[in-house]
Amino acid sequence: MKIAWVTDSTVYLDEHLKDHPDIYIVPLLIMFNDKEYLDGKDLTLEEFFQKLESSPQLPTSSQPAVGVFAELYESIKDKYDAIISVHLSSKLSGTYSSSLQGSQMVDAQISVIDSKILSLPMGKLISRGIQLQEEGTEYNAIVEELTRLANHHETYVTIGSLEQLHRGGRMNAAQFLIGSALKIKPILYVNDGELETAEKVRTEKKAHQRMVDIFVKAKAEDPSISNLSLIYGRTPDVANVWKERLQVDFPDLEIQLCPLGPVIGVHAGANTFGISWYQ
Q: Is 160 in the same domain as 210?
């Protein structure tokens, strides 16, 4: 069975998938001072952060329109037997909803999956799906497995800018005021696709160490965990330091570094750092 894979621009794909002929990426939109940019096409990550530093206003983002997805599905449906569309958490963006509505306008076999995550962890879902496809796994079984995996990841993150997270609607006013006034660095985790506070610490360094400690404990409890994603904004050096440290303790662990895209940067900020793994 020939399957088309559709996703959105918050995804981070491994090198071997970046130019895959059957993967289609729909860009989200970024607004800077009333000017609109297509995420991943009109702005690189570095260009985004440069604009962020010089802009008097914080940028905003929005999901693709329903019609964008419907048009894409219509244009590719005759080339494939089916389509699987994997998107960032429906609780963080309306992209999943737009994709689902667009799929209902097209006469084709389309399954739309809420990854309940974004970035490299979402890319790993697509990678796993393609692997299953190549192994000859039946279509419905692929969809079921990806849906199952979406509920079995652990993701923790420290946000580089609480102000951006708050103004983007991802943190309530009380949390923002307390965090800013007390100079607290909250450790957030993704719970069923939604950001929630796991712990609160005083410094960025302690927050990073605590997240790594959480992973080390999880790895001790489940030695089968074989890969880890280190997610960062504009600080690859921080991610590299932690990769080197973890590789000493876990030489067989596959550790991947993942820069956040501009859309995530809108809400998270340059100094964001996170860790993620599938159970």
A: yes
Cβ distance 83 to 4 under 8 Å?
yes
126 and 223 within one domain:
no
The CATH number of the domain where 137 resides is what? 3.40.50.10170
- Between CA 270 and CA 161 the distance in angstroms is 7
pTM for the model stands at: 0.86
Length, in residues, of the chain: 279
Strand partners, 36: 31
Range of 120's domain? 3-28+63-149
| Helix residue spans in the chain (DSSP H) | 45-54, 66-76, 95-103, 119-134, 139-149, 162-167, 173-181, 204-221, 236-249, 262-268
Question: Rounded distance, CA 11 to CA 259, Å?
Answer: 10
Sign of CA dihedral 37, 40, 42, 45: positive
Helix axes 95-103, 66-76, angle to 10 degrees: 50
State the Cα–Cα distance between residues 160 and 270, nearest whole angstrom: 6
Q: Are 133 and 167 in a shared domain?
A: no
- Cα–Cα distance for residue pair 174/177, rounded to 1 Å: 5
- pLDDT tens digits, residue range 73-101? 999 999 999 999 999 999 888 999 999 99
CATH label of the domain that carries residue 178 = 3.30.1180.10
What span, in angstroms and rounded, lies between the C-alpha atoms of 85 and 209?
Answer: 35
SS3 label, residue 168: coil
Is 248 a domain residue? yes
Mean confidence (pLDDT) of the chain: 86
